[in-house]
């Protein structure tokens, strides 16, 4: 049984206008949790992920409970990739990692570049990248941040099968020490990784444990 709880959510409700998107959401996240977040379109999955990314604005409902000294304990990748198209991949990574005061060892950077087959495009501007390459670049930005909790909104979108396989291998290494919540419509690709499943319907959250956990 896990004892290192990193985040607790309770009594979380959220409205957009008169529409109640989330209703009394409650859950806990522990070290090495890999949680799939599922639900129909418009069920509030992306909204919940954004709320977790901005947990400091929801202090009455979300409690960060880790003793980590890291300045930015959460890394988030949503539908908006958050890249500057006129800058090169290297310039984008340098910029975002500098904002977060996050230094990355060269061998780690080289490894992720090799995994995503972007080593020859490091100095090319993002606007010259294909949709799949932009997704890889955005994933690099999220994965290179030294975080305790990784939040990914449909990270396999735009990736070919080989790149998807490599991403799963990277996530396996990440979850050995840290945790993640992933929005996905394809559980098969994460079957060996996920230990919990969150399902949103009608604003309510149902939680099930994976048989492999």
Number of helices: 5
Mean pLDDT: 87
The secondary structure category is: alpha/beta
Order of helices and strands: EEEHEEHHHEHEEE
Tell me how many strands there are: 9
Low-confidence stretches: none
Arrangement of strands in the largest sheet: 5-6-7-3-8-9
Q: From the 3D coordinates, which CATH architecture would you assign?
A: 3-Layer(aba) Sandwich
CA(first)-CA(last) distance: 10 Å
Strand content: 25-35%
- Specify the CATH homologous superfamily: P-loop containing nucleotide triphosphate hydrolases
Shape: globular
* CATH top level class name: Alpha Beta
The biggest sheet amounts to: 6 strands, mixed
Description:
This protein is α/β, with parallel strands linked by helices. The protein has one domain: P-loop containing nucleotide triphosphate hydrolases (Rossmann fold), CATH 3.40.50. The protein has five helices and nine strands. A hairpin with a 2-residue loop joins strand 1 and strand 2. The model has no long low-confidence stretch (mean pLDDT 87).
What's the layout of helices and strands?
Layout: E1 5-16, E2 19-30, E3 34-39, H1 45-53, E4 62-64, E5 74-77, H2 89-99, H3 106-115, H4 131-144, E6 149-153, H5 161-174, E7 179-183, E8 196-201, E9 204-209
Parallel strand pairs: 3-7, 3-8, 5-6, 6-7
Antiparallel strand pairs: 1-2, 1-4, 8-9
Helix pairs in contact: 2-4
For the structure shown, list the relevant keywords.
six-stranded mixed beta sheet; globular; three-stranded antiparallel beta sheet; 213 residues; Rossmann fold; 5 helices; alpha/beta
